[in-house]
Design goal:
The protein has helices spanning 41-47, 77-83, 93-105, 109-125, 162-178, 198-210, 223-231, 235-244, 258-263, 282-291, 299-304, 312-318, 337-347, 354-368, 400-407; strands at residues 8-15, 23-31, 34-40, 52-55, 60-62, 65-70, 128-135, 150-157, 185-190, 214-219, 273-276, 294-297, 322-324, 386-390, 412-418, 421-422. By secondary structure, it is α/β, with parallel strands linked by helices. Strands 1, 2, 3, 4, 5, 14, 15 and 16 form an eight-stranded mixed sheet that branches. Strands 6-7-8-9-10-11-12-13 form an eight-stranded parallel sheet. The termini are close together.
C-alpha cells in the first residue's frame, strides 16, 4: 500500500510512542511520509476534522522492532544441518562454531542467497523495520535491493593473512559501490578478536575509518574467548585454530579482557556496535561507556550456547546504550524481536522493567544503527514508521507494556508501515 494522499489519522486502541506513556484511543497524524502529531484520537480529530482516517480498531500501534544483530544468510540453517546429517547443535561454544563452519562450507551461493531473501521477509512479518545484518556471501548482495528494510549491512571480514584480507576489503568496496541503491546502508564486521590477527584487525578498523563505515563485532561472548586473549590457550587455540591452520601465537595475546583489547588500543569508535558483551566486568563496562558504543544483546543465542548472561542491570546503571538482536537461526529459534524480548524479560528477571525492554527493542536499536532521527519512537518530524499488532486479549493501559513484553508468539503483526507505506501484504 502506497502512502495515503494528504494528511491521515492512524487510530488504534493503544498508541505506544516509546518516548512517552501509552495513549489509550490514540492516533498518529501523518502527512508526506512523516509524523505531524501524536495524541488522543479525540484531540487530533477535533483539531483536524477533515483528514482521512485509518482505524486499526482493537490493536496496538507502536514503532517497528529493530533487529540490531542478525545473520540472515543462515535463515535456512536448520534444514541445511539436517541434510548434512548434523541436525543437533553442539553445546560447547567452539564445537558449535566448527559445526556451523562445516555445514556452511557445503552450500552454494544460490542457497545462501535464497536463505537471505527468506530471512529478510521473515523480519518484515515479525514487525521488524530495520536490521543490522552480518553479510558474508558477497555475490548475494543484490538480495537486499528490493527489501524495504532500513538499517545496515555489515560485510564480514576475518582471517590472519593480510593479503587475503586486503583482497576481501577491495571486493567489499566494489560491492558497496554496485549496491548503493538499497534502503540499507553499509558497514564492516570484523568478526571477533580471536578470528583476526592484531595486524589484520588494525587494517580493518583503519579501512572502516577511511570509508566512514560503522563497525560491529562479536565481543566478550564466551569464557573461551576471554581465556584465549589472556594467554593464547584453551579450546580456541586447540580446536578452532588447529582446524583453520592458524598459529595461536602468531599475534602475541594481549593479556587482558576482550573489551580492554579493543578499547585500550582505540580500535572501537563512538557509534560502533559490540555484540553479546556477556563476559565483562565493571572495568569493561566503564570502557564501553567511554567508547560511545552500543551493546547488542542476543539472550536466546547466549542461553542456547551456554556462554552466560550479559549484566543488563549494570549496563543500564552505567548508561551503556543497549539494543536487541536475534543472532542467527543456527543459535535461535526465530528472527522475531518479539520472541527475543519475551525471553529476555523472563531470563533477566527484573534486571530491566517492561518500559526498558520496549525501548531497547525499538529506540535502542534505532540509536545503535544511527536511525534515531528517522524511526524507533513516535514523535513529530520522524518518518511515519510503525507496526500494528493484535493480542488474543488486549490488557488495560496500566498493564500494556508488561503484557507486550511477555507476549512473544502471541503477538500478531497485522501491518508494518515504513515512511507511511504498508510493506506487508493486505490481510
Amino acid at each position: 500500500m502506497k502512502p495515503t494522499s494528504g494528511p491521515t489519522l492512524y487510530r488504534a486502541r493503544f498508541v505506544l510512542p516509546i518516548c512517552s506513556a501509552p495513549i489509550e484511543d490514540g492516533a498518529l497524524l501523518v502527512d508526506d511520509g512523516h509524523i505531524l502529531d501524536v495524541n488522543t484520537f479525540e484531540n487530533l480529530s477535533i483539531a483536524h476534522p477533515d483528514v482521512a482516517i485509518v482505524d486499526f480498531g482493537e490493536a496496538v500501534l507502536l514503532p517497528p522492532m529493530i533487529n540490531a544483530h542478525t545473520h540472515l544468510e543462515l535463515s535456512s540453517f536448520r534444514e541445511w544441518a539436517a541434510a548434512a546429517g548434523e541436525p543437533v547443535a553442539p553445546q560447547d561454544f567452539v564445537d558449535w562454531i566448527l559445526w556451523l563452519v562445516r555445514v556452511r562450507r557445503s552450500l552454494g551461493d544460490e542457497q545462501l542467497h535464497d536463505s537471505l531473501v527468506g530471512g529478510l521477509n521473515a523480519c518484515l512479518l515479525a514487525g521488524t523495520g530495520a536490521i543490522g545484518d552480518i553479510f558474508t556471501t558477497l555475490s548475494a548482495a543484490h538480495a537486499y535491493r528490493k527489501s524495504p528494510l532500513r538499517g545496515r549491512i555489515f560485510a564480514e571480514v576475518l582471517g590472519h593473512d593480510p593479503a587475503v584480507v586486503e583482497e576481501r576489503l577491495t571486493a567489499i568496496s566494489d560491492i558497496i559501490l554496485k549496491n548503493s541503491r538499497s534502503m540499507l546502508d553499509w558497514g564492516l564486521a570484523p568478526h571477533a578478536p580471536y578470528t583476526l590477527s592484531a595486524e589484520v584487525l588494525d587494517k580493518v578498523f583503519a579501512y572502516a575509518e577511511w570509508l566512514s563505515l560503522q563497525c560491529t563485532m562479536h565481543l566478550a561472548e564466551s569464557t573461551e574467548e576471554t581465556r584465549f586473549l589472556q594467554d593464547g590457550s584453551g579450546a580456541i587455540a586447540e580446536k578452532l585454530y588447529a582446524s583453520a591452520k592458524w598459529d595461536p601465537m602468531a599475534s602475541h595475546p594481549p593479556g587482558c579482557s576482550p573489551v580492554a583489547a579493543l578499547c585500550q588500543q582505540g580500535r572501537l569508535r563512538a557509534g560502533d556496535l559490540v555484540v553479546h558483551g556477556v563476559q565483562v566486568d565493571v572495568d569493561d563496562i566503564d570502557l564501553l561507556k567511554q567508547s560511545g558504543c552500543s551493546v547488542v544483546l542476543c539472550p536466546r543465542s547466549n542461553a542456547s550456547l551456554k556462554v552466560g548472561k550479559a549484566p543488563v542491570a549494570a549496563y543500564l546503571q552505567a548508561g551503556v546504550p543497549l539494543a536487541l538482536g536475534t543472532d542467527s537461526l543456527a543459535s535461535s529459534q526465530s528472527l522475531s524481536i518479539w520472541d527475543e524480548m519475551a525471553f529476555a524479560m523472563d531470563w533477566f528477571s527484573g534486571e530491566a522493567q517492561p518500559c526498558d525492554w520496549l525501548e531497547i527493542a525499538t529506540l535502542g536499536g534505532a540509536k545503535a544503527l544511527g536511525l534515531q532521527e528517522k524511526m524507533g519512537h513516535l514523535f513529530p518530524g520522524l518518518e511515519a514508521s510503525f507496526q500494528v499488532v493484535t493480542l488474543p486479549e488486549l490488557p488495560s493501559v496500566e498493564t500494556l507494556e508488561k503484557v507486550l513484553c511477555t507476549a512473544g508468539q502471541n503477538v500478531t503483526v497485522t501491518h508494518l508501515y515504513l515512511a507511511a507505506e504498508n510493506v506487508l501484504l493486505e490481510s
